[in-house]
Amino acid sequence: LCPPAGSCTMSVAEDAEWLRWVTKQFGSIAGKDKEINLEEFKTALQVKESFFAERFFALFDADGSGTISLDELLQALSLLVHGNETDKLRFLFQVYDVDGKTGKIRLICRCPDPGPRAGSGSIDPEELRLVLRWCLRESALALPEPRLADLTRALFEAADKDRSGSITFEELRQELEAFPGVMENLSISAASWLQPPAPTQRSGRPRCLTRLYWHNHRSAVAFLGGYIGLNLLLFALAALRHAGLGGWLAVARGCGQCLNFNCAFLAVLMLRRCLTWLRTTRVAEVLPLDQHVALHQLAGYVVLALAAAHTGAHLANFSRLARRDGRDVLTEYLLSPRPGAGGLGDTAAQTGLALQGLLGAMVTFSCPCVRRSGHFQLFYWTHLSYVLVWTLLILHGPHFWKWFAVPGCLFVLEKVVGLARRRAGGLRIVEVNLLPSKVTHLVIERPQFFHYKPGDFVYLNIPAIATYEWHPFTISSAPEQPETLWLHIRSLGQWTNKLYEYFQQPELPSPELKLLSRSLREKRSWCWTQVGGDRAQLLGNTECYVDGPYGTPTRRIFTSEHAVLIGAGIGITPFASILQSIMYRYRRRRLSCPSCHHSWCEDLRDEEMALRKVDFIWINRDQKHFEWFVSLLTKLEMEQAEQEPGGRFLEMHMYMTSALGKNDMKGVGLQLALDLLATKEQRDSITGLRTRTQPGRPDWSKVFGKVAEEKKGKVQVFFCGSPALAKVIRAHCERFGFRFFKEHF
Fold first, then answer.
1. Which of 615, 625, 701, 688 is nearest to 657 (CA)?
2. Does residue 728 lie in a domain region?
């Protein structure tokens, strides 16, 4: 079977390969009768709702037998996979041409011309409304009936050119021609089994060997090289110094010297306040401070490996000594202090075994599978044994104290400062909002002399939830907000779920509902209100403790010229603080003429902020995940429109990954209607913002290509979200030569 005329976009070899693939896939889903029934078709098509599966099935089933044969499938797929624009448009028209009154599907024979057999030959408003309702469900969108009516009206009025009360095939063609690129790419995107997998393209050399990769990771690679080199040097010097005492002892001494350094280095990587201060200095441009958590994990694994090698070498040496002295019992060397064994009181062997056990427990219970599976307490309490580890190291190694003196004193000083702040008393949680997607919004009274930068985070402890647990959360309020701190906490783990549940069922002194007050002075009594589906409470006696603030990579944003902020889901929280801070600075620079009252903003760039342009990209899975932050984004849009009419300093880009795009037959009508209504009302129907929410995932090549074309200065990309998406964005940043920074959360 050859492709339809005019669709010769595939070579003969490619077309033959496609036919073989479809035949193979057909055999894998068809029953013994070599026919596909409706249920098998639904499973293979992977559509969420049955409406489109039934419509496509009816159109594929040319003879109306209730099953699809291989010939029928090949004929339909030839049209969809590499048909011309007219073929695809005719198929789309037939999908929309249903009986609007009963919802009954007409079996349609595909003919060269859209005659009377193709349904009624026109689409009336009820048919369009029915299809758009199923489009909404397919894209996981929920809009009220009046809004669906608005969408139907907008699309129908645009397409019904002659105002006849129905849309003909030619009118639909004219409407779609206004959207370039839609028709030639129109397909059923969910049916991945229709086309053979694209051949994988392998680059000539690994990405880690490219110039752009080294440019974006130069500080981390240089630091890692220095770290490895220093360990090798320390090992070599210690091993050579003890080479005359035997090979095993030389290895043990070399590993021991490396352990002195690495155990002290672990303490350095835990100095959060010192690291936050270093971010404000030029050292931040040289050292990979953003990777201090990853370096801490790396150093922990290195310590465990060195400790195992150190212990193994000593065991081999003890075995040699036992054989030399004619003793058969190795345990005598291990469990009993012996003169010359080393350590305080010649207890090096005993303290070494204890250290080995403690280090093994710390590393084991710090694995993600333990921490994120409801066993955080195991991680917490085993990690607190670092005090015992450092004590045993001082007793075990005669020179460890020299390495540990400075970082140990700084560590103790940081702990004393944190303890003193906590002793000063807890902070009141003055307001709690339970937002969609199980997000808990805490409003906490701001401590005196608490200074932080946009994007910083704190460690939070709420004794009512867990007495000893401290968890890090990004501050989502701007530093310019004087009285309170905001935290937005997504319920993803044991502690965060307990937090949400704790505030979900408070003790209520009265069944009366009261509105929230905007003034902190009025927030002294218990009450709650239900507004827009969000439950809010005012609290008077819930205490919490805050340790911080601590710096993050996002502190670099205000030194960028063109910043691209990318948040995925709850990863928006560090950017919430940043965007608010930008608008506060806008307000401070707003000037007005005393004569004509015309207002404008001064140039934002100064010694603290070099920004010329900000692109904010927020990616969410579905509609409800936008709800909890939309009010702030709406306010930002309004302020920019008021203070910089027509300004493009801050551009927002919203993406909803579950929504189907214009190139999908199950989503094209809905997306066209949403575009038309957004243009008419100047606001998006999904979020209510002026910014139109785009369906699907961002095309990063196009997104970054547009950023590069704007030439607003040096581009830096800041991302907070899943590690998988971070790898994709990092690769594109390397391709375009942008600096990439990832927020760890």
1. 625
2. yes
Q: For residue 745, what pLDDT is reported?
A: 55
Does 50 fall in a domain?
A: yes
3-state secondary structure of 537: strand
**Cα dihedral 476→479→480→484 (10° resolution):** 60
Query: pLDDT tens digits, residue range 538-563?
Result: 565 688 888 888 888 887 888 888 99
Report cis status (omega within 30 of 0) of the bond before 196. no
Close Cβ partners of 438 (under 8 Å, ≥ 6 residues apart): 490, 491, 497, 500
Could you tell me if 643 and 565 lie in one domain?
yes
Domain count of the fold of the chain: 4
Please write the tens of the pLDDT for every residue from 603-636.
555 555 677 888 999 998 888 778 778 878 888 8
Are both 403 and 471 inside the same structural domain? Answer: no
Residue 383 one-letter amino acid: H
Answer yes or no: do 273 and 308 share one domain. yes
404 with 450, same domain: the answer is no
Two tokens, residue 73: 């499938």
Read off the tokens for 420. Answer: 């003193």
Side chain identity at 327, as an amino acid letter? R
Residues 448 and 572 in one domain: no
Distance CA 594, CA 601 (A): 15
Looking only at the bridges linking them, the beta strands covering 739-743 and 715-720 are parallel
- 457 touches 550 (CB < 8 A): yes
Q: Name the residue range of residue 714's domain.
A: 554-593+607-658+696-743
* DSSP structure string for 418-458: HHHHHHT--EEEEEEEEEGGGEEEEEEEPPTT----TT-EE
460 touches 470 (CB < 8 A): yes
Helices 700-710 + 723-736 axis angle, to 10:
40
Q: What are the CA-CA distances from residue 676 to residues 473, 512, 516, 673, 683 (Å)?
A: 40, 43, 37, 5, 11
